[in-house]
């Protein structure tokens, strides 16, 4: 019994150590990266938040959405309009965008989540198609800027330096985005480990059994959709603040499809997989453009297919399999060491 306890504790140290090392590495990036590279790192965190939100709905609840680019755009425009029209501080626009997307996501989910499978996917896809056109409409042009969009100023840091490091706008926004992303990832981890997370997974795997056990399927589906929209809206607001520009053509249907691709590449029902999917979305299109200027999207599609062949379960699942294989090689020595400790 004591041996099993020691083995269990030894196995738990790995993920905690990995999270600590990733956070330490992320916090150290402003020390040696240029402002442009930090901007790219900020966008990786932004996409990771959006992909995590979509994964809460698709990976953990089993509801396919091809319209989350609309919530990304909604969060971006809420932040941009508040900053441009009402001079609201950039940091105050983030919770407002989150609240707006939470309410809209819940209300939109009430009728739409009565659908299942490809019907639900098609209904959410229509939202991604319609919203960019609505943003261009003349009745909203005074607020949204129409086709021209809204140009914002870079968010200035409240202090000039931190721990001896000069804070440019890009460095400051990276640190702010990192703090928000860490908080949202931690919140998702706690959410999924609790009663709500178990209910969502039950709805995904066995909805009939979940209903018979007293799970309110309609309520939990709506909550999942609303929280998913909240995460995506926060990502959109952070994107608008970081890029300092929003326009309808930046939030086309391709954004929704890219977010879904990021979920699949990172790994369904995987919290750390959101980071791998975000890295793919940020850097692979640039890599494809560098390989071929004439047909970059053909290269992008080929790389996407290659990723599916190499890691069919997603990057996170492949990483876990690799870690298990390495541990199996080291297990005899580890068991001998723990046996000595137990005796």
Describe this structure in words.
The structure is a single chain. This protein is mainly α and 343 residues long. The chain has one domain (2-342): ABC transporter involved in vitamin B12 uptake, BtuC, CATH 1.10.3470. Helices cover 77% and strands 2% of the residues. Strands 1-4 form a two-stranded antiparallel ribbon. A hairpin with a 2-residue loop joins strand 2 (161-162) and strand 3 (165-166). It is globular. The mean pLDDT is 89.
| Mean pLDDT rating | 89
Helix run count: 14
Fill in the CATH topology: ABC transporter involved in vitamin B12 uptake, BtuC
User: Roughly how many Å is the radius of gyration?
Assistant: 22 Å
pLDDT < 50 stretches? none
**Level-1 CATH class name:** Mainly Alpha
CATH architecture level-2 label: Orthogonal Bundle
Shape: globular
Amount of beta strand:
under 5%
**How many beta-strand segments?**
4
> Strand pairing plus helix content: what structural class?
mainly alpha
> Termini, distance in Å?
12 Å
The quaternary state of the protein chains shown equals single chain
* Fraction in helix: over 70%
Question: What spatial order of strands do you see in the largest sheet?
Answer: 1-4
Give the biggest beta sheet. 2 strands, antiparallel
Helices and strands, in order, run as HHHHHHEEEHHHHEHHHH
Indicate how many domains the architecture comprises: 1
Protein name: Branched-chain amino acid ABC transporter permease
Keywords: Cell membrane, Membrane, Transmembrane, Transmembrane helix
Main location: membrane
Transmembrane segments: 17-33, 39-57, 64-83, 89-110, 117-135, 172-192, 225-247, 259-285, 297-323
């Amino acid at each position: 019994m004591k041996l099993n306890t020691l083995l269990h504790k030894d196995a738990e140290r790995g993920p905690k150590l990995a999270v600590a090392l990733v956070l330490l590495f992320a916090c150290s990036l402003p020390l040696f990266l240029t402002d442009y590279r930090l901007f790219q790192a900020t966008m990786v965190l932004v996409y990771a938040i959006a992909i995590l939100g979509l994964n809460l709905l698709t990976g953990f609840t089993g509801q396919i959405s091809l319209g989350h680019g609309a919530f990304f755009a909604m969060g971006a425009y809420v932040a941009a309009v508040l900053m441009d029209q009402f001079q609201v501080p950039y940091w105050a626009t983030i919770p407002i965008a989150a609240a707006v997307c939470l309410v809209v996501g819940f209300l939109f989910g009430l009728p739409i989540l009565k659908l299942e499978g490809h019907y639900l996917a098609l209904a959410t896809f229509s939202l991604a198609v319609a919203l960019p056109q609505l943003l261009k409409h003349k009745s909203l042009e005074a607020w949204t800027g129409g086709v021209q969009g809204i140009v914002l100023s870079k968010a200035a840091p409240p202090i000039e330096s931190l721990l001896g490091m000069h804070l440019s706008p890009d460095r400051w926004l990276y640190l702010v985005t990192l703090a928000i992303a860490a908080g949202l990832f931690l919140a998702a981890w706690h959410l999924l480990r609790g009663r709500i997370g178990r209910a969502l997974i039950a709805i995904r795997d066995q909805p009939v059994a979940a209903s018979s056990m007293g799970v309110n399927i309609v309520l939990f589906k709506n909550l999942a959709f609303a929280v998913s929209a909240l995460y995506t809206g926060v990502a959109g607001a952070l994107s608008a603040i970081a890029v300092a520009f929003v326009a309808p053509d930046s939030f086309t249907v391709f954004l929704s499809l890219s977010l879904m691709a990021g979920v699949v590449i990172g790994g369904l029902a995987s919290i750390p997989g959101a980071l791998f999917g975000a890295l793919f979305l940020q850097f692979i299109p640039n890599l494809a453009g560098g390989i071929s200027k004439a047909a970059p999207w053909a290269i992008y599609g080929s790389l996407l297919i290659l990723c599916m062949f190499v890691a069919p379960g997603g990057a996170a699942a492949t990483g876990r399999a690799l870690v298990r294989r390495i541990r199996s090689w080291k297990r005899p020595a580890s068991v001998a060491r723990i046996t000595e400790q137990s005796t």
